[in-house]
Amino acid sequence: MSTFTILAILIGAGVLAYFIGRMRSIQVCGGEQHKLHSRPSYNGYYLAILTALPAIILFAGWSIAERPVTRYIAMQELGPKVLQGTDAEQALTMSVVDTIAEGLPQLTSEEFEVLRKARYGFVTTSDARDVLSRHSVVLGSDPERSVLAAADELASARATSRLIMPIACFALAALGFAWGYSRIRPELRARNITEAVMRSGLFLASTVAVLTTVGIVLSVLFETIHFFQFVSPFDFLFGTVWDPRFATVGKAEGQFGLLPLLWGTLFISAVALLVAVPVGLFAAIYMSEYAGSKVRAFAKPVLEILAGIPTIVYGFFALSVFGPLLRDLGFNIGLEVSASSVLTAGIVMGVMIIPFVSSLSDDIITPVPQSLREGSYGLGATQSETIKKVILPAALPGIVGAVLLAASRAIGETMIVVLAAGIAANLTLNPLEPVTTITVKIVSQLTGDLEFNSPQTLVAFALGLTLFIITLALNVYALYIVRKYREQYE
Fold first, then answer.
1. What gap in Å lies between CA 317 and CA 347, rounded to an integer?
2. Which NCBIfam families does the record cross-reference, listed alphabetically (predicted)?
């Protein structure tokens, strides 16, 4: 029985239990619902929860535990040579065991008998390999007898598990239903139980998000510590040359200087903010102070469409249109401009983050109390003077928060930089030359054929942790400023 079918049956049983529980509560009170502690719907939820929730939890736990438990059972058939080997050797052997075990259910009884004979030495393992190859189970060499035994045990354990699991889940659902049905009485506090379960579910949902963030940070942190066992933190943080070279596992060849990548990230982000902040802020001032309601209702959503365009589209635009255009313009005025440069990536990225600045700034400028405007007009100030002297200073903390959020978005951007800025780690002040960023190097270091434990791969985690700290600091500071602004006017 498939996973989807089991889940569908359990959910369907829960829905059915809801209606039965509802009817049961009305029945036990003789139709006089005012005698019930909880409304009939809460009694329905109570019975649905007891029917479906424990069974679904059992199903989830069983599904999570099935793979490690069955693999542990199968590994007991492997010889001490494999069990005492390295993790990599065990993983390689178990991948062969998995491949054979997946193919066993496709064999006929005669073919399966050939594999059993090969397992016990009555025929050669080459015969078993030939049988498996007829069912698209391709092996690089003749399997060892212990591998065939482990595959047999693994397939058997999986089949047993998948037979017992639905029976156990459905039995638990039936027990939950019977117990809950017998407890439905007028005095049953079904509402309290239902709300407690829902509160627990909401708590778990919020905990999942927090634990996911903590898990990501810890995984990056541990791999970064592993990287610093090969490369000095001082050389990484203050090195001016990025030139990691291929080396065997356990050795660091080349130089892993962070500064060229950090400079490229900040340089492109600065150009992007020089484009996005003035345009976005002026657009916000126009929409909040000058535009009519109809113009505002039309212009704001249209401007926010820019934020919904995939960044790869911006990258293609920069690569195929804007970069060559800048190069040709530079050639006409005697400048050597690379098609992939800081200027190309920065301007296109600035266009991308204009909605972040304009929309957030508009949301902050609009709620500035009207009394401030009227007071300024009453003193004889014009509208432009009121905006400069009253509105913008009042909204400045929120605007700064919007700019910082846009900056963190620019620092973390990848696709535009890959296509428009190049991949050269160049420590330069010339915006017409190509540079690269931290995000681009993270991608390039993780997509090669290098060993995962090599410094050339582990450096991606150190770069990721650096980027995480920078963006986290910007976001925390931005949120601090925005909250301070909100407290001022609420």
1. 12
2. phosphate_pstC
